[in-house]
């Protein structure tokens, strides 16, 4: 029992991990004025126990730190991958450029402090990672530091001390990194005298005008140019813009096919996006005051159902390739993905986890259900092959040396950057390559939370031995340095976003939270200002921000070693 509680063996290390993670997560539920530092309590508790002599096996700590970081960044990559490249469209380009500018400013402030004060640049990387609450950046910096010092022949103990010093600087700067951004969000609202009601109304209107989600229209055929023409001929050039779901003629409802001939006075139920509302009115005629219940009430031989895409073979298939309407007499009106209703365009690529809204005869819908799977219980089963295959590719990719001019040692993306990039690519291209990458949100969050918990516990238990000594011997300056790295870039970015780019306040909140990869700021902003628009902006800049912060941390460490 003494070895279990006071030793350094495997059982002792596992016990420490379990206690630190469980207690840290419990402490993370405590909020002061609605603010919590969440899982970072695991790091602080690990440092505390390590300071008082409770330390784990160094080999186990090293493995758990790297493996936990891999799980964390890989789950993030899978989640943001499908929307990563879309985030660069329209306003997302400007938002990502501002986020990249914020990162560049943080790097410049870090270098300036290093040049002015003479503080070790490796230590300043730890301060910078804490100041912007970027845990993967800390992991990447520690790995780059360990690899670089090992290549120079430094002893293992010296390498561990240098890595622990990074973690100490991170831990000291972290709390103000959270509180500083929240303070600036509140300050920016006061500076610009933001009226939340007006901001929300304006953003809702802009979203309504630009969104590409599904919109139902009830139109009467009034255009003489389409009288007597086949539906296929009428929609030949617009086949990817809308779906004619049903047609009503003399009170009878049917599902139109390519050879259906339009007649004056026909009523059609059309699903399109907001972009093509005017186009639909021009082609068919003005909208008529009908409701979906009018179609359902009179539609006795047709039913509407929502089917789940659960067959892996459906991943990467387009609706056009399935020929659902011609084979089964069933019309697909909408595709639901991650809670968002999309127009069922023929070119839309399906993936496991999607749901399709279909209308047609019962027998035809049953055939379509067999085609796509429609077994929601299958979605709850973990699909581990793509995850571990992706991690393997990520580790290989992260180990490839990349030479940069002026840097004596090649850069490696490491166990943070490599798996992150592969996960993003897998999340985006997986369905197109017919690779099933679907995981439920709860499964993704479980992997992510386990990963970050392992990482923080390992970092804390490895850093606590010299933490107090580092702070006493000048480390208290790290708090000031961290505050400058937090406040200057975030304030300048927020002012530029509002003054020069006319961003909405909710967009600025999401930009600042995503640009600092700080979920605590996101949670505070959403709780305080009550808008989901904040999370949209957060998700827009998060992937690129995460990648650039990981890369910046590694580059600075390599400059420090050179």
Q: Architecture of the largest domain, CATH level 2?
A: Up-down Bundle
Strand order of the largest sheet: 1-4-2-3
Overall shape: it is: elongated
Describe the main β-sheet briefly. Answer: 4 strands, antiparallel
**Structural class by SSE content:** alpha+beta
Q: What is the number of independent domains? A: 2
CATH T-level topology of the largest domain: Na+/H+ antiporter like fold
Q: Give the terminus-to-terminus CA distance.
A: 47 Å
DSSP helical segment count = 23
- What's the overall average pLDDT, rounded? 81
Give the amount of beta strand, in percent: 5-15%
The number of E-state strands comes to 8
Rg over C-alpha atoms, rounded to the nearest angstrom: 28 Å
Q: Low-confidence runs (pLDDT<50, min 5 residues)?
A: none
Approximately how much helix is present in the residues?
55-70%
* CATH classification, class level of the largest domain: Mainly Alpha
Explain the layout of strands and helices:
Layout: H1 2-6, H2 10-28, H3 40-51, H4 58-84, H5 91-117, H6 121-131, H7 135-151, H8 156-191, H9 196-210, E1 214-220, H10 231-234, E2 242-249, E3 252-254, E4 267-273, H11 277-283, H12 292-298, E5 303-308, H13 319-322, H14 324-328, E6 331-337, E7 340-343, E8 355-360, H15 362-372, H16 384-398, H17 414-429, H18 441-463, H19 467-475, H20 477-499, H21 505-515, H22 519-529, H23 533-561
Helix pairs in contact: 2-3, 3-18, 4-17, 4-18, 4-23, 5-6, 5-20, 5-21, 5-23, 6-7, 6-8, 6-20, 6-23, 7-8, 7-17, 7-23, 8-18, 8-19, 8-20, 8-22, 16-17, 17-23, 20-21, 21-22, 21-23
């Amino acid at each position: 029992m003494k070895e279990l509680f006071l030793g350094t063996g495997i059982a002792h290390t596992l016990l420490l991990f379990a206690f630190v993670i469980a207690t840290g997560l419990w402490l993370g539920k405590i909020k002061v004025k609605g603010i919590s530092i969440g899982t970072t309590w695991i790091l602080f508790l690990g440092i505390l126990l390590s300071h008082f002599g409770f330390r784990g096996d160094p080999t186990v700590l090293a493995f758990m730190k790297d493996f936990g970081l891999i799980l964390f960044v890989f789950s993030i990559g899978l989640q943001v991958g499908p929307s990563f490249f879309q985030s660069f469209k329209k306003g997302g380009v400007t938002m990502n450029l501002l986020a990249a500018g914020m990162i560049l400013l943080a790097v410049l402030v870090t270098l300036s402090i290093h040049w002015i004060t003479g503080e070790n640049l490796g230590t300043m990387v730890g301060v910078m990672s804490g100041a912007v609450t970027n845990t993967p950046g800390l992991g990447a910096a520690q790995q780059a530091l360990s690899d670089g010092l090992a290549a120079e022949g430094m002893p293992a103990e010296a390498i561990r001390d240098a890595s622990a010093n990074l973690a100490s600087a991170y831990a000291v700067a972290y709390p103000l990194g959270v509180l500083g951004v929240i303070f600036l969000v509140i300050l920016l609202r006061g500076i610009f005298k933001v009226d939340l009601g007006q901001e929300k109304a304006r953003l809702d209107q802009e979203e309504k005008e630009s969104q590409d989600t599904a919109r139902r229209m009830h139109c009467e055929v009034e255009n003489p140019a389409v009288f007597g023409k086949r539906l296929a001929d009428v929609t030949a050039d617009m086949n990817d813009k809308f779906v004619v779901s049903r047609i009503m003629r003399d009170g009878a409802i049917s599902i139109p096919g390519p050879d259906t001939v339009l007649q004056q006075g026909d009523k059609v139920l059309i699903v399109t996006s907001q972009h093509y509302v005017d186009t639909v009115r021009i082609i068919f005629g003005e909208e008529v005051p009908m409701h979906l219940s009018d179609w359902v009430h009179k539609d006795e031989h047709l039913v509407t159902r929502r089917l789940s895409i659960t067959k892996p073979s459906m991943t990467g298939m387009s609706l056009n390739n399935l020929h659902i309407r011609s084979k089964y007499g069933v019309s697909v009106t909408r595709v639901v993905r991650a809670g968002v209703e999309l127009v069922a365009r023929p070119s839309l690529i399906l993936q496991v986890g999607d749901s399709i809204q279909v209308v047609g005869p019962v027998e035809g819908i049953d055939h379509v259900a067999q085609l796509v799977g429609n077994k929601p219980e299958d979605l709850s089963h973990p699909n581990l092959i793509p995850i571990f295959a992706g991690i393997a590719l990520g580790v290989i990719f992260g180990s490839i040396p990349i030479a940069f001019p002026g840097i004596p040692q090649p850069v490696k993306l490491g166990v943070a950057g490599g798996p992150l990039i592969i996960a993003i690519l897998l999340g985006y291209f997986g369905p197109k390559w017919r690779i099933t990458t679907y995981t439920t949100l709860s499964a993704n969050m479980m992997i992510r939370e386990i990963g970050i918990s392992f990482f923080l516990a390992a970092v804390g238990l490895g850093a606590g031995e010299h933490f107090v000594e580092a702070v006493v011997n000048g480390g208290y300056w790290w708090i000031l340095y961290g505050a400058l790295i937090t406040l200057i870039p975030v304030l300048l970015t927020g002012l530029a976003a509002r003054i020069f780019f006319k961003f909405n306040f909710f967009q600025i909140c999401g930009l600042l939270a995503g640009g600092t990869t700080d979920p605590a700021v996101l949670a505070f902003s959403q709780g305080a200002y009550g808008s989901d628009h904040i999370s949209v902006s957060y998700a827009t800049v998060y992937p690129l921000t995460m990648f650039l912060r990981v890369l910046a941390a590694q580059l600075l460490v390599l400059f420090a070693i050179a």
